[in-house]
Amino acid sequence: MFSHSISNWFGRGILRTHDMLALLGSTTIFLMWCVTPAPAQEKDSILTVIVNKSNSMESISKRDLRALLLGEVAEWPNKQPIVVVEREPNSEAFQKTLKLILHMSPGEYQRWLLQAEFRGEKLPLIKTLNSDEGAKKFVFNVPGALAITDSVPTSPNSSQTKVLRIEGKLPGDPGYDLK
Questions:
Q1: Domain 48-166, what architecture?
Q2: Which three-class secondary structure state does DSSP give residue 29?
Q3: What is the pTM of this model?
Q4: At what angle do helices 2-11 and 17-24 cross, to 10 degrees?
Q5: Deepest of 15, 69, 104, 131, by most Cβ within 10 A of its Cβ?
Q6: Can you name the residues that pair with 126 across neighbouring β-strands?
Q7: Where in the chain is the domain with CATH 3.40.190.10?
Q8: pLDDT tens per residue across span 119-159
């Protein structure tokens, strides 16, 4: 009832803005101002597909990469099981993976996973990590792992992991398709 009365007073012009501030307290207004999220800034990132150094693959097509991510292919040519490393759902790398490789929205992807599980299909082994660095460490330690990160590598092959070419191109090459 109290809040209804205040809104009536404010609506009729009986209470002015400074009166409302006095009623609500400046702390409440300050907290509302502090928790308002800043607008998202566009970051021009390039998706990079990384695998363990022991993986024999050097290049992969977008079509084959999509098949790996959806579990249509469960093992590498050397019979090593594939472990897909995903970034957290709100990360730019995950969102771009959905858009550029899987051609799905987040809802469609979740629905696809649930439907595949319901049908009894074998789902890909998925590990969700919250950073590119964590993904790189995981790929280094798990020979069958594949991760998609949104960081541009300093060199095509680091000491820990290997960058796969997509359609024969490395990140940064003209015509690289995952940006």
A1: 3-Layer(aba) Sandwich (3.40)
A2: helix
A3: 0.71
A4: 160
A5: 69
A6: 84
A7: 48-166
A8: 998 888 999 999 988 999 999 999 999 999 987 655 444 67
